[in-house]
Protein 1
Amino acid sequence: MPKVEHVKTVCRSCHGGCGVIAHVQDGKVIKVEGDPESPISHGTMCAKGLAITQLCYHPDRILYPMQKTNGDWKRISWEEALNTVAARFKDVIAAYGPESIIVGQGTGRDYESHFSRFGNLLGTPNILTAGHMCYLSRIGATLTTCGRHPAIDYANNPKCIVMWACNPQWTNPDEYKGVSFWRAFENGAKLIVIDPRKGFLAKRADLWLQLRPGTDAALAMGFFHVIIDEELYDREFVSQYIHGWDLFVERVRKDYTLKRVEEITWVRQDLIRKAARLYATTKPAGIHWGVPTEQNNNCTDFTRIAVGLMAATGNLDAPGGNVFHVPPPVRKVAEFSAHTELSAEQAKKRLGGDQYKLAARMTFITPKCAWDAVLTEKPYAVKAGYLIGTNPVVSRANAGEVYKALKKLDFLAVQDFFLTPTAELADIFLPAGTWLEQNHVAENWKFHGYVLARQKVVEIGECWQDHKIFLELGKKMGQQWWDSVEDALEWLLEPTGLTWEEFKKKGYLHGDQRYYKYRENGFSTPTGKVELYSTLFEKWGVDPLPKYTELPESPVSQPELAKKYPYILNAGLRTPTFFHSANRQIPWLREIRPDPIVEMHPATAEKHGICEGDWVWIESPRGRAKEKAKLNEGIDPRVIVAEHGWWYPEIKSCDHGWDVSNINMLTDNSHESMDPVMGATNLRVLLCNIFRCEED
Amino acid sequence: MEKVSLIFNKKNCMGCHACEVACKQEHGLGVGPRLVRVLEKSPDYVPIYCHHCAKAPCKEACPVEAISRNEQGIVLIDNDLCIGCRECLEACPFGAMQFEDNQEIAVKCNLCFHRLVDDKRPACMEICPTGCIYLGAKKCVAAQFEKTTP
């Protein structure tokens, strides 16, 4: 038997970070295991990461560059592929300017630094990411409020955890894996769960607040009402370190009585009071919040109120609270990204930049502006696209419009593993490597104080790790890059005094963590304080104080429409097996979850003659999708909960059923429905109706 | 030799299915047989797995004595002897016996016997993020279980 070699690396089947030991035999990964020495995951892994060998060696995976000619994909060399993309981009730049090229990524495969650098050096301000409604929006909101992202500090055992719209044990944990949460919970932490649906954590919680989907910001104001009313705040901190406290208190008292908050959120006043007391009086306490709070028009304001709660209760940068983790001294993603290389003149052309000012400051756009520019050629024409690890026809709001816009582009290059419905619209396909095929100083963009050594375990076909594709394509465009991926890593690591080889052996670096750093230098905001009253927003002419704004499409805001669409659709239910639109072709994972699931209360199902397992049409004013019914008593009868990200790789025609069970056929991306400073699209909450599907 | 047992603390099963994929990977199984499986009745999750019963109904049902129980109490099936009659699938009260369509034989959990020999824990247990799977001498496991279940 050939020898089996064990190689340590780091997973990236979701936002990643779990330590992995890959078993390699004859140049092939035959198995992956959790790395017990990982400071992040402590030996555990999830279904997605464990199934990586079925993804890497999947028969449908594209292993070489391809070009589409007359509707057919044909294999080409890397040289031909890169030359073609570079030539087409140069043509567009000459005729329309670099801003006519959209460079877009999905949730990313840990190449944000390289992706942004490529865009900046190309000269396009039109960087399309998920950032407007996922994670980066949180970073933007926290930057403007307290100067840095305060992540919950599980390592120091919070005594109370508020799990706000998040299920880190199943899905997409950013700073923290489920296992860190679980250790703190098992250590006796009190748990408050805020979730419209009763899941595992709601069942285990000391308090479960079942709110009306999307009303998180109002509920957070309700917490504040109790904290102010009962004087549960940290007086010293508030008087020394919060800017705009009195004005904020006035707003809370006036607009957010508990009665009013109950009306908005459906959460009983006594429960809000209990939860706020528990959070405010248990020290230390941390808030762990998730994307549902961001994927609506209250995106920025919710995070701002949440930071206010951390601050007012004295939990900000306190051990076991929400802390500013100190990163190890590697060069930062922002520096690598070369944002300063984008001229002020080009930056000014950022689509929607005047309207969505915080998004512009975070250097990205909201997708709606991209689709508008493609379809209407206003304010100028967008002619070409370069999409990396993203499947926007499935994952972005108003999918029908996305599809039309991508189809209209003169030229589109897509970089991915499979021919997804989005990739099928491309002219050039660039085959990317998975995390098993990647050398990287990983997790450098996260706010958890670690960088991890993700080392290449194998090479498969002609696939290149994304970083190498950016680097080689960048060079073809005449951009300044390093000779190799590893040379760039040496540059990132230089301040640590370690070489890439040494770092790989070490496995990870942890920053030198300190707490209460604001006591020395204040907060990194214009006033040096936590800005509940934002001086930046004031300058922008935006409401400087956070608030709850009624959802653009709800029974409250649109009672007439609600007659035809009587249910609140809570879209985007996560699963432990899929990551957004990924993994539908992985046999082990698809066996666990063969169908898209729509959950509803048994009484709701009965009203419509729907039984468990029936196919159901979910319909909104914009479109419909078909998913399979699952009954769940832990959902309000007025709410329908549906999975997102569905397409059918097994449908071999080039559309791969992208519009059949795609919940984003229903979602809205109108400017009126978005967050006013971030351009966050509402992927989560809208009005819908349901019908039993008569055909199969 | 002391008898060993596997037990799931259902209260702590959060339905992540990592055990299922770890098991498939460890035993090189494709789509079809699921030696461990978690049913979702949200918010409850119900693990289906082989209990390695003392009086194993699968063993008693097997007409060709392909199923045996070793001295550690692990119920094993001999692939070479199995005739694929599915009697054991019918007999198992937990739905833990599985069928492998390609080879047309019954398959079952062997508690990752090959890992136990190497002093490693079964693959499902090793990976479980909440640590809700226990293995050990029967008495120890029972004690552990009592400790974590109020």
Protein 2
Amino acid sequence: MILDITLSGLINGSVYALLAIGFSLIFGVARIVNIAHTAFYMLAAYCIYYGTHKLGLNPALCMLAAIIPVILIGLLSYRLFINPIREHEAAVLIATIALAMAMQEIMLLIFTGDFLGVPHLIEGYRMIFGVKIAYQQLLTVAVALLVLAAVWALLLKTKVGLAIRSTAQDREVANLMGMNESRVAMVTMGVSVGLAAFTGAVIAPLAIVNPFMWMHPLIMMMAVVVLGGMGSIKGSFIGAYILGFAESLVVFLIPMGAYLKGSVALSIMILVLLVRPEGLFGIAFEEER
Amino acid sequence: MKRSKFVFGLLLMAGLLMATGIPANAADVIKVGVIGPMNFMQGKGHWDGATLAAEEINAKGGLQVGKKKMKIELVKADSNEFISMTDATNAMERLMTQDKVNFVVGGFRSEAVLAMQDIAMDYKKIFLGCGAAHPEICARVGKDYNRYKYFFRVTPINSRYLVKVCLINLATVNGMLKKALGIEKAKVAIVAEKAMWIDPMIKAIEANVPKMGMELVGVWRPSDKATDVTAELTAVQRADAQIIFTIFSASVGITFARQAGELKVPAAFVGINVEAQKDGFWAATQGKGNYAVSMSTFVRGVAYNDNTEPFIEKYISRFGELPTYTAVTYDAIKFTLGEAIEESGTIDAEKLIPVIAKAERVGTGAPKSKFDKNHDLVFGPGYATGITFQWQDGKMKGWWPNGWEGVTYKGMVPYKIPPWMIQKYKK
């Protein structure tokens, strides 16, 4: 059973990690709580559905192609709805909720509320220590690790990364040093939405495509980010696996209460916050930066 | 001056009359409200079934009500009941107060129907339920007849009968496993979403499985919107379950069928999976939903009587998909209501109720339909039974009833055990 729980937790955690990294990035840099993050993931899933089922395109091609329009929509949303009110965090929060709801309603109008599916990139399963695991799930684990490595490389090895980090540390000083803080925020938004779209592309084959598919991951993603510490990518990554394992434990130990797995994971988050209000790797006060 | 005021007054009155849009022949129209979650397949079924019925009636000039012909006018009401109960009650209220409908058909979620039922009863309007299965909806009629007599359940059979059918199906599959694979005491796992209407069903199944000579190895209750049930499937396989009894009404049904197919879980399926009732299930599961089982009213190639197949064909040619059971709004309008109106020559609810309650109708969704004293649909041989079907190589195939109590519908095929199960257990 320990093996079952470990493998299952690893898969759950990878899905949450993929979602949380992009969200954490845009919050860490621009202090934007982008509630619409998982709605972009939903958009990507619909793009793939449209490409594969309506246009008959290759699934892998659709998955890559879906990222571009979603990034464009993300950047446009940033320019039109977020940038003008960026200084008011509560307003941004409400605006992104509205944005997500608008995207949901548009998808509902176009595709109705029917549950849809997109094809797996790799069909079949593999037995690992006596546990059957679908190749698509193995791919998710691998991609989560790759994305983390890519984000790490972007932040630490490139000039853009340097700009993003310096803006995250102190926006005003970065501005005084001649950095276009607004542009950096926009680039970060592009990267963040791109990650959401990429996540959508990888996870969509495991999910049920429907206009409400952004809600449950949003709650879990917020829990992961809060548990790991707002804005900490490392924290999000570790938080994702903690909640992933917690969910698996519930399913295996309390089968009749399997539906409680989300609630148990959220309770763990609350318990951690009671002991450490800033989250596992968060910063307690702005002055500590 | 006076004359110009008079002309102005006349023009104003004419304008107001035009603006209110009162048709000259409003009295010659029977307004039927169709209520359901219109952005979802259940609501689409409600509307499409009703549309076909209204078109057929109107093509003949309408219903003969006494000495005059009255056409059917449908009023669409989106209850949005999956998302908001308030939307559902508001939609029903609007049908009563603003649209002033004569009758209502539809409803899906039991919780929503119970609330909408009260509103229709307040206005003393006949409400023909076409979707919710909870016994309480019709039990209310028995408890307080004067208030709830306006409600009739046209479809589906109530959930007590659904359990009965499921257990009959379980016994059938158990017998097949014994015969084909030599499994003497099959191990049964229940995987059911967390929903209120399922709780009493699980108790009944838990109580009956040992009595039927099988072993219950566990009950798993994922969330109705779970997007991953691999952990549950791994646990079910660890328990060596040979029969998986599923009860799903929401999206988790697709997740489960797809992942069970992907992982080739060596077990036979019985039970309910509402999402499997629609044509889109095969695509939604990416073809992994093979051998999934559920119950429905309509299955291609299966006929209860001479009305069924022409209706299915017409529905498919018009809307491009198989009707789900909520499309029985067709029967509700054309047969239950339409025939009763013509027989009684009135649209007065008080006079229609005894006619609807006593009649036996031959519609499309059962060999014959009639109501019991609680205005609930009668279940049994010769009446509504539903069809248990299985997805076999991309097609929905009916496999029960096939000889049960002497009932076999035209077009039934045998149940198939998944080949990977045969491979594992064949001696």
